[in-house]
């Protein structure tokens, strides 16, 4: 596997409570850690992969540092209690991007995703910038060539930029182009988008591609039932769901450690019920959490929020 390397040995550790009871377990004690990239050994499990890359963030004029996100998120997750679902996690290591070689790294991640899905594993990717999404999405489209794929993106940004070179702001435009070239439907929903953070040009592109947008101002307590109905409509229209979570969808006071923190955002307590609906749909095949940048975290707040999100979605994730 190109650009692959194992997770650092000191990442998965935490408090040992086994003296209390046999089931006093934490994630670091139940996660499987094979020495090599070996998805064929773990059918029906969830492949945890890191994408150590922020080359796309740099090209998008963002704050670099997201390449440190995968190991940081693992560390934040390690000491959490292990319940139903968490024992299915298999850490299959990381794809590490070389400097100024974004396409090569994306191709390597896409191939890793394809191999995992081909071996009947679902994929959970810790990014990395949102350039992760093009690679992850490509792997899913390749693994399910005849099925209707729905992309649900929780994000302050539409990421449909028109750029001469791929960046962290172009992944869904790239996936739309792929679908057009291969005569496949492009079913893309963006939830939590900020009108203040997306230009009219991006809205025009979204309208052209028939993108479903649910704005951050619609994700308020009194409207969550309606938002859930919209998500259910999306679920009903597709066979496979790829869910991507740009952590800048959370407000800055919960997620300071991203390239572009959100002034408003969708707080974790409102985001979780929306994600639960998708996790329990039995159509969710792939998830990534992206843009976590430890260089800008404050007292571990961003790491803790991202880890709780990852912990919760794995706990809810039904096959």
UniProtKB/TrEMBL annotation:
<keyword id="KW-0479">Metal-binding</keyword>
<dbReference type="GO" id="GO:0019557">
    <property type="term" value="P:L-histidine catabolic process to glutamate and formate"/>
</dbReference>
<comment type="function">
    <text>Catalyzes the conversion of N-formimidoyl-L-glutamate to L-glutamate and formamide.</text>
</comment>
<dbReference type="InterPro" id="IPR006035">
    <property type="entry name" value="Ureohydrolase"/>
</dbReference>
<feature type="binding site">
    <location>
        <position position="157"/>
    </location>
    <ligand>
        <name>Mn(2+) 1</name>
    </ligand>
</feature>
<feature type="binding site">
    <location>
        <position position="248"/>
    </location>
    <ligand>
        <name>Mn(2+) 2</name>
    </ligand>
</feature>
<feature type="binding site">
    <location>
        <position position="248"/>
    </location>
    <ligand>
        <name>Mn(2+) 1</name>
    </ligand>
</feature>
<keyword id="KW-0464">Manganese</keyword>
<feature type="binding site">
    <location>
        <position position="246"/>
    </location>
    <ligand>
        <name>Mn(2+) 1</name>
    </ligand>
</feature>
<dbReference type="GO" id="GO:0008783">
    <property type="term" value="F:agmatinase activity"/>
</dbReference>
<keyword id="KW-0378">Hydrolase</keyword>
<dbReference type="GO" id="GO:0050415">
    <property type="term" value="F:formimidoylglutamase activity"/>
</dbReference>
<comment type="pathway">
    <text>Amino-acid degradation; L-histidine degradation into L-glutamate; L-glutamate from N-formimidoyl-L-glutamate (hydrolase route): step 1/1.</text>
</comment>
<keyword id="KW-0369">Histidine metabolism</keyword>
<feature type="binding site">
    <location>
        <position position="155"/>
    </location>
    <ligand>
        <name>Mn(2+) 2</name>
    </ligand>
</feature>
<dbReference type="GO" id="GO:0019556">
    <property type="term" value="P:L-histidine catabolic process to glutamate and formamide"/>
</dbReference>
<protein>
    <recommendedName>
        <fullName>Formimidoylglutamase</fullName>
        <ecNumber>3.5.3.8</ecNumber>
    </recommendedName>
</protein>
<feature type="binding site">
    <location>
        <position position="246"/>
    </location>
    <ligand>
        <name>Mn(2+) 2</name>
    </ligand>
</feature>
<dbReference type="Pfam" id="PF00491">
    <property type="entry name" value="Arginase"/>
</dbReference>
<comment type="similarity">
    <text>Belongs to the arginase family.</text>
</comment>
<feature type="binding site">
    <location>
        <position position="157"/>
    </location>
    <ligand>
        <name>Mn(2+) 2</name>
    </ligand>
</feature>
<feature type="binding site">
    <location>
        <position position="155"/>
    </location>
    <ligand>
        <name>Mn(2+) 1</name>
    </ligand>
</feature>
<feature type="binding site">
    <location>
        <position position="130"/>
    </location>
    <ligand>
        <name>Mn(2+) 1</name>
    </ligand>
</feature>
<dbReference type="InterPro" id="IPR005923">
    <property type="entry name" value="HutG"/>
</dbReference>
<dbReference type="GO" id="GO:0033389">
    <property type="term" value="P:putrescine biosynthetic process from arginine, via agmatine"/>
</dbReference>
<feature type="binding site">
    <location>
        <position position="159"/>
    </location>
    <ligand>
        <name>Mn(2+) 1</name>
    </ligand>
</feature>
<dbReference type="GO" id="GO:0030145">
    <property type="term" value="F:manganese ion binding"/>
</dbReference>
<dbReference type="InterPro" id="IPR023696">
    <property type="entry name" value="Ureohydrolase_dom_sf"/>
</dbReference>
